[in-house]
Amino acid sequence: MTALAAVLFDMDGTLVDTEVLWWEATEEVAARLGHRLTRADAPEVVGRAVEDTAAHLVRATGTSDPDGVATALTTAFQRRVDDGAPLRPGADRLLAELARAEMPFALVSASPRSVVDSVVGGALAHVPFALTLSADDTARTKPHPDPYRTAARRLGVPVTACVAVEDSPDGAASADAAGCTVLVVPSLLPVPAGPGRIFADSLEDVSLDGLRRHVRERATGL
């Protein structure tokens, strides 16, 4: 029977309330380019890597400088993160529970390393992550499986014995493709149901015992 070996957390919108900050940063850059951001843009913004959102703004505005747009997005987002990123409800309690139980847990983010380091050095400075991964640490980031596979490999555990905690469609797709059990706690975008996906309204509803049960149930096909 497969036992839970590690918990792999997304960062933006999952542990810290930064998806709103990312939206604001994208809104700012889009306005500079003459594009008014609306809910129709959300699938290309929420939970997406910087390069993906930059490519969307390039398509929407006809600009010819995707690298410049990506840099502007990172700068605008970094400025907001540096001003403070509040924790999501229940995050602190769950992380403390895992630490007390000596259950390995890691941060697996699609944000650039500079942003990850800012959050880990700020709002999450007290959290003993086994490791942190950013978009800069794998050849491909979410929705590809590379980040979660890499995290499991570096932790020395089977990826199928990991629970990934995610809030976005792209993040859930990444964890699914890697082979994780996926716990979805949606933030700004709805996430479709799927095999191996469990849903919670808030991290306040999540416990270590529950995560262990989800892995057992998936392994036994319940």
Provide structural commentary:
- The protein has 222 residues and is α/β, with parallel strands linked by helices.
- Helices cover 42% and strands 10% of the residues.
- The chain has eight helices and six strands.
- It has helices at 19-32, 50-61, 66-82, 91-100, 113-120, 146-155, 169-178, 208-220; strands at residues 6-9, 105-108, 132-133, 162-166, 181-184, 197-199.
- Strands 3-2-1-4-5-6 form a six-stranded parallel β-sheet, with helices on both faces.
- Helix 1 (19-32) packs across helix 3 (66-82) and helix 2 (50-61) crosses helix 3 (66-82).
- The longest helix has 17 residues, at 66-82.
- It is globular, with a radius of gyration of 17 Å.
- The model has no long low-confidence stretch (mean pLDDT 93).
- InterPro entries: HAD-like_sf, HAD-SF_hydro_IA, HAD_2, HAD_sf, PGP-like_dom2.
- Pfam families: HAD_2.
- One of its GO terms (molecular function) is hydrolase activity.
- This is HAD family hydrolase.
- Keywords: Hydrolase.
Keywords for this entry:
222 residues; alpha/beta; 8 helices; 10% strand
Secondary structure blueprint with pairings:
Layout: E1 6-9, H1 19-32, H2 50-61, H3 66-82, H4 91-100, E2 105-108, H5 113-120, E3 132-133, H6 146-155, E4 162-166, H7 169-178, E5 181-184, E6 197-199, H8 208-220
Parallel strand pairs: 1-2, 1-4, 2-3, 4-5, 5-6
Helix pairs in contact: 1-3, 2-3, 3-5
